[in-house]
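Long-time lurker, first post. I've been practising inverse folding by hand and with some scripts of my own, and I keep getting stuck on stretches where the structure tokens seem ambiguous. Below is the full token string for one chain I'm working on. Before anyone asks, I'm not after the true native sequence, just a reasonable design that respects the backbone. If someone could post their per-position residues I'd love to compare against what I wrote down in my notebook.
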């Protein structure tokens, strides 16, 4: 690419821009020769008798100065008359202001085009003299007006003697000129708007070569044309010639940055503030972080102005051997909802926002059609249930034959409905549905709504969909074949209803509910605690042995006319963690009714030392309670619980 070396240096913020009068010609201003002619024409006829016309501006102004008794007033009036008027255009300088990579700009111009072009740049500073050096702000773009400014006419560099004095040994040691030399020593330089016939640029070239010698960095000289002598002279000073106007150079640079700047941040790093500023110039708001390589990357991009959405584009070329063209056409024709272009089919792929390439390292593309419906709806079922309002997205996945497969996304879930007629309001008698979560369900209310709707759809309950109080869809007669999903959805609906009961009982709120972590056993225990209910469980025979066995049999003899139960209390209170919420439900209590004790073995005294505790109906019960004393064995209970023995 032409000028790529220069443009890479600019991208890295390592170039000082040096601007001459030719860069202002587009705005109607004059070069040195034409300016000399304009000033000469402003002389009176009497003055013209003493001064010969010349296109050498510095020589002409020197003569006028002495003709007027060493007075600059006429010269300053001429300059102000030409340069203080608002220019008819300053679009090239505005374009320059949108390239924040030039941190330092030096100009020999008197005009105000920079002031107009950079008026919307918040961090822009003009340096006119040594007095301004202490006020320099490092995070600002700095414009050095080395030939002075019309606001300070006494410092204007115009006459031949001004140039001679300006580059005298004493002046060269000034803080201002030392700052200029420091910039030129540390950075590469791009000269635009100059002719090799300009006395000031020739003096500057000589000074740079003399001061910096071989240590000088690269310099570039942009000009629309130059003769062989000029080219040889630039080559001798190791200055690279670029055949281009200043405007053409900036336009080419702008195109290069639009294509290369943001992708380079990912690969090579860069200045975060410059990246943000470049985004602002292009109506792009960026959220920037560092990637694993320590370089810059973007978390998000959006329009700086909410009223002006980003123009997003994906551009790419296909390999000549690719067979994807027909698939792309099929996707564009709406015959398929998804398109995959793999690495071996793809090259030159880039993602653009407002014409700016954001990423250029795309190796594969997956394209999915946007939903044909994306709005808030309310569902009304024939059994009287009405959902709350929620957002629904509907997208066509495939169109096999005269049917269509549609994906519905709502309430953190995804439904894929197959075997629908192409006309959505004319469903086939029977369809198939596949449901799966997209993400964790955001809250209990959404979960209840979701599974209330699913349960009715899977049970073929007719419904109508409304959006903005208008009927959008009616499913007259759509039948869903029976499946295991119907039972699962019923279980999940009850699960979320129980979560709502728990929220109220414990004054908590569940959020981001991951169904992969649904714990039905814990749920049953907590609900039993909240509702003070018992949970029936299958029981088995319990075996106990030791010298307490006779006492148990004796206790049974005391209540042999009554029904006897065993009760055991867990040693510690139970604390469950259900969907990130800690819930204490007290001690687990076991109750075995209708107990029967059978001696299983006897000691040397004929007393039972091992017994089997069983019950006639093989049932037991679990409950949960706070504030009870735990025991490691059993309480022996008779029916009215007026007496108990701890064994």
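-- Answer (accepted) --
I ran through it position by position. Result:
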């Amino acid at each position: 690419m032409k000028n790529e070396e220069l443009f890479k240096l600019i991208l890295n913020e390592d170039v000082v821009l040096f601007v001459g009068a030719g860069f202002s010609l587009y705005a109607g201003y004059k070069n040195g020769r034409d300016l000399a002619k304009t000033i000469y024409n402003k002389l009176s006829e009497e003055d013209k008798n003493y001064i010969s016309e010349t296109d050498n501006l510095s020589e002409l102004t020197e003569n006028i100065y002495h003709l007027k008794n060493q007075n600059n007033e006429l010269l300053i009036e001429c300059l102000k008359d030409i340069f203080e008027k608002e220019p008819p255009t300053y679009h090239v300088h505005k374009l320059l202001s949108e390239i924040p990579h030039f941190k330092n700009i030096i100009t020999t111009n008197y005009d105000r085009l920079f002031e107009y072009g950079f008026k919307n740049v918040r961090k822009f500073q003009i340096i006119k003299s040594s007095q301004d050096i202490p006020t320099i702000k490092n995070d600002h773009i700095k414009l050095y007006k080395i030939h002075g400014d019309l606001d300070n006419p006494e410092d204007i560099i115009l006459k031949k003697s001004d140039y001679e004095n300006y580059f005298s040994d004493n002046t060269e040691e000034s803080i201002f000129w030392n700052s200029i030399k420091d910039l030129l020593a540390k950075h590469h330089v791009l000269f635009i708007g100059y002719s090799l016939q300009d006395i000031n640029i020739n003096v500057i070239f000589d000074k740079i070569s003399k001061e910096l010698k071989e240590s000088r960095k690269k310099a570039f000289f942009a000009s629309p044309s130059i003769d062989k002598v000029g080219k040889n002279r630039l080559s001798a000073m190791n200055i690279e010639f670029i055949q281009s106007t200043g405007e053409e150079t900036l336009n080419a640079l702008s195109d290069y940055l639009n294509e290369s700047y943001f992708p380079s941040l990912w690969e090579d790093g860069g200045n975060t503030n410059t990246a943000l500023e470049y985004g602002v110039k292009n109506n792009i708001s960026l959220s920037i972080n560092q990637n694993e390589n320590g370089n810059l990357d973007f978390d998000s991009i959006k329009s700086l102005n909410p009223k002006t959405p980003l123009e997003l584009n994906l551009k790419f070329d296909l390999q000549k051997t690719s067979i994807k063209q027909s698939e792309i056409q099929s996707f564009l024709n709406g015959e398929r909802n998804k398109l995959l272009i793999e690495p071996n089919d793809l090259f030159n792929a880039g993602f653009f926002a407002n014409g700016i390439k954001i990423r250029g390292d795309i190796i594969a593309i997956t394209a999915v059609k946007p939903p044909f419906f994306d709005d808030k709806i309310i569902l009304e079922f024939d059994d009287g249930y009405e959902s709350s309002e929620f957002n629904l997205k509907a997208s066509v996945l495939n169109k096999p034959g005269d049917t269509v497969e549609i994906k519905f996304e709502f309430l953190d879930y995804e439904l894929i409905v197959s075997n629908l007629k192409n006309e959505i309001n004319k469903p086939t008698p029977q369809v198939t549905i596949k449901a799966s979560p997209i993400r964790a369900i955001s809250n209990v209310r959404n979960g209840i709504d979701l599974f209330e709707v699913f349960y009715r759809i899977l049970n073929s309950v007719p419904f109508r969909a409304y959006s903005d109080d208008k009927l959008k869809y009616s499913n007259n007669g759509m039948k869903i074949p029976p499946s295991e999903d119907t039972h699962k959805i019923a279980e999940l609906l009850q699960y979320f209803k129980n979560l709502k009961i728990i929220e109220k009982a414990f004054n908590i709120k569940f959020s981001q509910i991951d169904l992969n972590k649904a714990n039905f056993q814990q749920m049953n225990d907590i609900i039993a605690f909240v509702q003070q209910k018992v949970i029936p469980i299958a029981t088995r025979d319990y075996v106990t042995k030791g010298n307490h066995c006779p006492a148990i049999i004796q206790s049974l003899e005391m209540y042999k006319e009554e029904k006897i139960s065993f009760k055991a209390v867990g040693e510690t209170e139970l604390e469950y963690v259900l969907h990130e919420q800690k819930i204490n439900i007290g001690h687990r209590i076991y109750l075995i009714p209708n107990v029967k004790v059978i001696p299983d073995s006897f000691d040397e005294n004929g007393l039972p030392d091992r017994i089997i505790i069983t019950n006639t109906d093989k049932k037991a019960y679990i409950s949960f309670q706070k504030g009870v004393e735990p025991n490691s064995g059993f309480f022996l209970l008779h029916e009215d619980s007026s007496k108990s023995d701890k064994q």
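A couple of notes from the structure itself: Confidence is low (pLDDT under 50) at residues 632-647. The longest helix spans residues 246-268. Happy to go over any region you disagree with.
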